[in-house]
Amino acid sequence: MAFDNLCKLLSEKYPDRFATWILGAAPASVKVLRTELSIEPIRADSVTLLQTQERILHLEFQVKLESDPPLPLRMLDYWVRLHRLYRLPVTQVVVLLLPPSESAVIETAFVLEATRHEYRVIRLWEEDPTIFLEDVALLPLASLAATVAPEQLLVQVAQQVNRIESTQQRQQVSAYTQLLAGLRFKKALVQQMFREGMMRESVIYQAILQEGRQEGRQEGRQEGRQEGRQEGELLLVLRLLAKRFGTIDEPTRARISTLPLLLLEDLGEALLDFSEPNDLIIWLQTHQP
Question: Can you list the domains of the chain with their CATH numbers?
Answer without folding.
Answer: 3-126 (3.40.1350), 133-201 (no CATH), 205-279 (no CATH)
